[in-house]
Amino acid sequence: MAALTIAQDEKGWLSTETMDFVARYLDLPPIAVYEVASFYTMYDLKPVGRCKLAICTNLPCALQGAAVAAEHLKKRLAIGFGETTADGAYTLKEAECLGACGDAPVLLVNNKRMACGMTPDKLDGLLEEFK
């Protein structure tokens, strides 16, 4: 998993060629690498925007307003889950539990930065910060 994370950080996403390299480097069958990369939502198997926003929609986050936050992002960015804005700036993803249920709803930015308690106003502020 660490090797896939490093590869994705360097390349921006995990192409088959990149996953094959990781498999050779770790002396693993390529399928073992593909299985891990396709199972975990933090890995991108196609190009993503410069800013990837992954919002948790699991039950604890949903109970604290994740659906409202997700709909706000979809409307504001004019994209749905799994889509990238036309300018390549943002990709919106639906995330599995991010392990911060007490701070719900949570958003993970580029797999590195956790944003908590994401209301529509906080989301707007975050998007302004990225401009």
Briefly characterize the structure.
The chain is α+β, with helices and mostly antiparallel strands. It has helices at residues 2-11, 16-26, 30-39, 59-63, 66-77, 120-130; strands at residues 51-56, 83-84, 90-95, 107-109, 113-115.
Can you put this structure into words, describing what you see?
By secondary structure, the protein is an alpha+beta fold. Helix content is 45%, strand content 15%. It has 6 helices and 5 strands. The protein has a 5-stranded mixed β-sheet with strand order 2-3-1-4-5, with helices on one face. Strand 2 (83-84) and strand 3 form a beta hairpin. Helix 2 crosses helix 3 (30-39). It is globular, with a radius of gyration of 16 Å. The chain starts with a helix and ends with a helix. The model has no long low-confidence stretch (mean pLDDT 95).
Q: Major sheet: order of its strands?
A: 2-3-1-4-5
- Give the number of helices: 6
Quote the average pLDDT: 95
Oligomer description: single chain
Low-confidence runs? none
Topology diagram in text:
Blueprint: H1 2-11, H2 16-26, H3 30-39, E1 51-56, H4 59-63, H5 66-77, E2 83-84, E3 90-95, E4 107-109, E5 113-115, H6 120-130
Parallel strand pairs: 1-3
Antiparallel strand pairs: 1-4, 2-3, 4-5
